[in-house]
Amino acid sequence: MSVIEAQDSSEMSQPSTSEEKKHPTRLEGYTQLTSAALKRKSSTEGSLAPPSKQTKLWEMRRVSQASVEKVVLQFVVQGLHPPHIVQQQGFIDLVQHLQPNTNVMTRNTVINKVTKASVEMKRKLKAALSEIEYIATTTDCWTAHRRRFIGVTAHWFNPQTMQRSCAALACKQLKGSHTFSALAGALNDIHTEFNIREKIIRTTTDNGSNFLKAFRVYGQTDENNNPEPVGEWDGEEDDGGQNDDCDEEEESIEGVEFVDAGALLDEDDYLEYQLPKHHRCACHLLNLVSTVDASKAEVNPLYKRVSRFTPVELSFLAEYAKTMSPVAKALDVLQGETSVQMGWLVPTITLLRTKLQQLHVGSKFCQPLIAALISGLEKRFGEMLVDPELIAAAILVPKFKTCWTSDKNILKLGLDYIRSHLDCQAENHISEGSQSSEEEDFFSSLKKTGPLETSQQLDAYLGCPGDTVEHLSLNMYQ
């Protein structure tokens, strides 16, 4: 390389003095231009898509301490967990992992909050029940972990919407054996606590011997001053799982009645408690028909031999399934949770009896079974099927009205019951709405009840093509 070339090369690799002075200015301008472009680009992209950085769970939604305590309380109550679960380290770690820096309630705090919520819920329930005129209750008693408990649920119709509502009134432990008097006392206390004792039209229980005796002794009598009817099966196979107390409640053994002298001094002539009218659980009764009563078919030797799996067992099983199918379906109907009312009972049992009678004609193997089932239905439901109140309840279900039976005498019982109560309501309405003399009160039943007389109201309802409960209020109270 020549000296000139080396010099030229050296000059190309080193900037001149004037270029050195211009470079900082050009660099500053270039930086300003690029930064402005980047700002415009970021603002445009920010309006179209979220930033690429992933937000952590606790940075995205911060949960308050109060909301954490509310959820923990719901977890304890709905899961029936013991209060001390909140003190277990695993539970504390779980809550704090999901929501760091959160304090977990102590056991005493849980108990206090549950107690406070229970008092508030009971206050609201009492206020709601105070607006209801007629209430039905169901009650049950059971033993768990060598402790005895009683549960009571209230059911009623909303007078505005005609929709059925229900609420649990109590689930409490019974001290000592659940004798008939202990059950009566517990029920009386619960009814009194909620101020509904005079509003309960009927209480439904299973067929436990102590429940039956409690209502037979302390329950209301019917219109003819008759107490709770005593069936031939009481205290036998259908004791509702209360055999552990039956010995205490035997009224007589081999014709000899034993009397406790101490108890005799405190005798109150069975006026201490007041229980409402009693109704036996239809599902429990029907279950007894399909088990206890059905087993009596084995008295027939041919049926018993065929039912123990002979070469024709397949034919027998097919016919057996066909026979028991309507019984199972009737149980499903009566165990409904939302739409089933007392008015469903008589039509369901009536239709079940009809289906069994129809099967009896063409039955080859199961005639003894069908006869036993029909006999069981008659024994356990016979009085209910001719009860005017229950028949009236069936007629007042728009789904059934009078189409569930062709027996005019049965329908007449229910229709007469409805008319009599409509007349009573009309008289009460007139007497409450006017200030009149005793003479006018005596002849008040001759007055008109409104736009339609009671018989016309009933006829209008029966002739209405609708089959929903709303038509009941529209036609009966217009």
From TrEMBL:
Skewed-composition ranges (Polar residues): 7-17
Family matches, as InterPro entries: RNaseH-like_sf
Coiled-coil residues: none
Disordered: annotated segments: 1-29, 221-252
Acidic residues: compositionally biased ranges: 231-252
Domain of life, per lineage: Eukaryota
PANTHER family assigned to the protein according to its UniProt record, in alphabetical order: TRANSPOSASE (PTHR47501:SF7), TRANSPOSASE-RELATED (PTHR47501)
Identification of the protein by name: Transposase
Organism in which the protein naturally occurs: Labeo rohita (Indian major carp)
Taxonomic lineage: Eukaryota, Metazoa, Chordata, Craniata, Vertebrata
